[in-house]
Amino acid sequence: MFLDFYQLREQPFGVTPDPRYLYLSPGHREALASLFCGIETNRGFLSLVAEPGMGKTTLLFQLLQRWRGHVNSAFLFQTQCDSREFIRYLMNDLGLGSDGKDFVRMHSELNKFLFREALAGRPVVIFIDEAQNLTDTVLETVRLLSDFESAEKKLLQIVLAGQPELGHRLSRPNMTQLRQRMAIQARLDALPATEVVRYINHRLQVAGYKGTALFTPGALGLIAERSRGIPRLINNLCFNALSLGCAAQQKQISSEVIRQAAFDLSLDPCAPTRPVPHQQMAPRVTNGLRLSLRSFYSWIADNLLRRRLFQTSVLSLVCGTFVIYFWVRSVTGAFRPSAAIYQDTQTTSAITGAESRPSQRVMDPTADRQPHELLQTGAHENSVSFFAYVVQPKDTLRNLCVSTLGRYNKDVLSEIQKLNPELTNPDHLEVGREIRLPLNSPE
To answer: Between the ranges 175-189, 223-237, 327-341, 361-375, where is the mean pLDDT highest?
Structure first.
């Protein structure tokens, strides 16, 4: 690992939705404020739409953390299900039993629970991640949940988060009733180049980096270009670049390292963001070349008729060779990689043996990982979905479980002890210590 080499306290470019690493760009701040205000004013239905990798789940966890202790919440991400399974997932996450109960009975018990929570002054908020996977039938079931209300206010707040497909589906005519109930529709857009730099510096600072600039200006420009401002791609690109830089013993990451990392991740700078029809990608012959070819063909036809066949054939062969040569150069030149837009402020040594041939990776970034580090990044096949949390003053394990999972029982405690084998006394949490909490408790 490169943590010791770059003097990092922890992995700055991980893949888990850790709220500590959330960088609030102007777009993220606006979306978070809109959702917070919608819940606070009891608006009922809210939505968050963004491209994959933009940090929707991390933003939802930040929202959960802000409302911790004030609301009873459920976080659902099992969205490939039918209506009955959806209600069962919801009741289990709220701490209500659902085994052996039919749909009508579960619906009735959920209604009674919401009334009890309303009388106790505890709002209930449901966060549904990856909502674009919900079928139309389940979306209708979600809409009907908004009918739980009293004469004064809604008994249930619902936040739908998903990819742009969710917005397209909500715009369909058969989704008119659900769309009209959406009081707030927030969006997350890709980060501009300046925000990419701030995003990287923020994550390095949280990870404990205190040295000089870790990435050269040219490297930062290439990261913004190749990642297209998508945080998940930024993380992957930076992680691979740090692995390569550590293997090459480079204390500062140059643009050459970024190019190699982007090549390993197949982040083509010329790759379109949307599929392009095949016929549009075919090379086109310019108008000037067409006119030249036509003139050449006309000249051959005239001379074949007016002069001797042998002389004309030899001359045609010579001219045809030149035309073919320049035509091939004009076509293949269009596909030649252009020079890098960004250049480093200082020259660094190449990490490969030859510039014209991409080198193989000299270090496996996961080769020296310990088992707990693999689990933290989600690489272990049988790992439980969890997120890391740093214990704050006055935190108790019961309060953390109730705020994140909605309940605290022996099954939840057993799962936490599996994730934290070093936790010998659950009743006493050490302030500043990191513990792992499951994203969903066992059924």
So the answer is: 223-237
Question: Based on the domain organization, do 174 and 40 belong to the same domain?
Answer: yes
Per-residue b/e over 116-142, b at no fewer than 16 CB within 10 Å? ebbeeeebbbbbbbbbbbbeeebbebb
157-162 and 45-50 strand pairing: parallel
Domain boundary (188, 209, 232) is at 188
Per DSSP, what are the bridge partners of residue 127? Answer: 75, 159
Is residue 331 predicted with pLDDT exceeding 90?
Answer: no
Q: Do 391 and 364 lie in a common domain?
A: no
Residue 289 confidence (pLDDT) above 50: no
Q: Which of 141, 127, 126, 132 is nearest to 85 (CA)?
A: 141
CA angle 140, 143, 146 (to 5 degrees): 155
Domain that holds residue 67: 26-188
199 lies in the same domain as 121: no
Total number of domains constituting the chain: 3
What are the helix (H) ranges across 265-396?
A: 278-281, 287-306, 309-333, 371-376
Which residues, in sequence order, are bridge partners of residue 160?
47, 128
Question: How much of the chain exceeds pLDDT 70, in percent?
Answer: 71
For residue 173, give the 3-state DSSP assignment. helix
User: Beta 386-390 vs 434-438: how paired, if at all?
Assistant: antiparallel
Instruction: Name which of 123, 121, 128, 122 is nearest 142 in CA terms.
Output: 128
Q: Which of 370, 398, 425 is the last residue of a domain?
A: 370
State the sign of the Cα–Cα–Cα–Cα dihedral 170, 175, 176, 177.
Answer: negative
- 85 and 110 in a single domain? The answer is yes
Q: Same domain, yes or no, for 3 and 56?
A: no
| Residue 41 shares a structural domain with residue 145 | yes
What's the pLDDT score for residue 291?
A: 40
Contacts of 43 (CB under 8 A, 6+ apart): 154, 157, 183, 184
Q: How far is CA 398 from the centre of its chain?
A: 31
Close Cβ partners of 82 (under 8 Å, ≥ 6 residues apart): 135, 137, 138
Strand partners, 162: 49
Q: Which regions of 12-121 does DSSP assign to beta strands (E)? A: 45-50, 72-76
pLDDT at residue 442 in the model: 53
Closest residue by Cα to residue 196 from 170, 161, 235, 160:
235
Give φ, ψ of 264 to 5 degrees: -60, -35
